[in-house]
Predict the structure.
Amino acid sequence: MTARNTICLWYDGTALEAATFYAETFDDSAVTAVRRAPADYPSGKEGDVLTVEFTVLGIPCIGLNGGPTFTHSEAFSFQVATRDQAETDRLWNAIVGNGGQESACGWCKDKWGLSWQITPRVLTEAIADPDQAAARRAFEAMMTMRKIDVAAIEAARRG
């Protein structure tokens, strides 16, 4: 990778599986390199996949197969701005339907524990509306949702 800043994500032996899923699910995403361990290490053997270089929506990442010591938390997430309900549904269903789990307000976790915010642009625009009453209605509607419902956000914004 040529980027100076790369997101490093810790996995317990599943970095290649995760990176492949992301590359197949998100636009402008790809697995770009697989590096094998040159020697035994605490959670693996020589020749095991040690790191996987990949991009997610154009963001450079490295998946490190570091073992079970550290796990993902909601303190880090990818926020994906979606164009419409169809894209929101496709990405949400891909993540949740592949062993992930739903959370609140457009958040979900993939099967590796990484958090995603599947956020329609309509929602971002609605809660930034200069009309504070419209922004509040949209925000309150969002607070009742798991996957974001674009039509419901638009209706709440309109009042």
In short: The longest strand covers residues 49-56.
